[in-house]
């Protein structure tokens, strides 16, 4: 039985493949821009992922939160750094972000379990 992280990644990959196979130039360019924006630059990738996490939480996008959590985890973000980042997101976004904070914490635990 796939776990939460595998389910998310499998679905994301399947649907991205379908979207990109339609050969829509605008969608392909948006995907490319997103990919390039999160590469190493004046800001380290780790910092960019944490910024993406804050924006995603404030905008209340659970898929985006999961994506940035996993990438941040792989870049060496600690649980404490993630929680401090999510605390800023909750402060900026307000209490309406709390349900997303709960799901983010749950997804982080799944990432930690996958590491075993």
> In the residues, how many domains can be counted?
1
| CATH topology label | AhpD-like
Please give the CATH architecture.
Up-down Bundle
Nearest-integer average pLDDT? 95
Concise summary:
This protein is an all-alpha fold and about 120 residues long. The protein contains six helices and no strands. The chain has a single domain (about 5-115), classed as Up-down Bundle (AhpD-like).
Question: What labels describe this entry?
Answer:
mainly alpha, 116 residues, globular, AhpD-like
SSE blueprint:
Blueprint: H1 4-21, H2 25-37, H3 45-58, H4 62-74, H5 79-93, H6 98-114
Can you describe this structure?
The chain has 6 helices and no strands. By secondary structure, the chain is mainly alpha-helical. The model has no long low-confidence stretch (mean pLDDT 95). It is globular. The chain has helices at residues 4-21, 25-37, 45-58, 62-74, 79-93, 98-114. It has one domain (4-114): AhpD-like (Up-down Bundle). The two termini are 17 Å apart.
